Amino acid sequence: MSKVITAQPLTRASFAPFGEVIDFDTDSHYPINNGRCERYHALVKPEAAGPNGHVLVNLFRGTPYDFPLALTMVERHPFGSQAFIPLSPRPFVVVVCPNGPDGPGEPAAFLTAPGQGVNYPRGLWHGVLTPVGAPQDFVVVDRGGDGSNVEEFYFSHPYEVRLPEGFAP
User: Fold this and answer.
1) Is this structure's pTM higher than 0.85?
2) Which residues contact 60 (CB under 8 A, 6 or more apart)?
3) Is the torsion defined by CA of 31, 34, 36, 41 positive or negative?
4) 84-119: per-residue pLDDT in tens?
């Protein structure tokens, strides 16, 4: 039998144990370009450790998932952080797990507000990119370099991830 996890709204406070929220709701901003642009500064700190580690900027195009979602696997990146920044104002689901003694702990799920992104620190167990309702494009900032930067963990029993009651994609 699956354990049920219902996605909660993504906030800086609720997500703080797992990483950083990327959005415009910050005091770290100021005008540039003669006042014609507002810079939202240093929202996350990308990590790129390990042999020949360097930061990459990528574009990902994700296919939406059906809900409820059977969560069978999570992954982590031992040498670098990973940031997902949506290019459209659509929400997506974020699944994260604290590190346990023998792998990932109990998963938590979050539903982003339109336009919010996340940054996972290196070594944090997380679900795969999970668009809701329609295909979605993302800027992804992660680590390149030598060595394998991905570890996968398969749960012995799947978790069932649900969207909040009343949410319609």
Assistant:
1) yes
2) 84, 129, 137, 138, 140
3) negative
4) 999 999 999 999 999 999 999 999 999 999 999 999
